[in-house]
Amino acid sequence: VAQRLHLVRFLPGDVIIRQGEEEAFDFFIVDSGRCSAHVQDAEGLREVREYSPGSERS
């Protein structure tokens, strides 16, 4: 698996994965910085999770 990893850098505000995408085959590991997951629902756009190096899914 490690041989298939490659570094990707994102800028603040970049969309990494968009809600509803049918084909999302990528897997991301946050090495530095932070990113957040947002969902669009009846209440509007809201943050549901923040990720940072070493963060675990709860």
From TrEMBL:
PROSITE patterns named among the record's database cross-references: CNMP_BINDING_3
Gene3D superfamilies referenced in this protein's UniProt entry, alphabetically: Jelly Rolls
Stretches assigned to the Cyclic nucleotide-binding domain: 1-58
Domain of life of the organism encoding this protein: Eukaryota
Pfam families attached to this UniProt entry: cNMP_binding (PF00027)
The protein's name: RbcL protein
Name of the encoding gene: rbcL
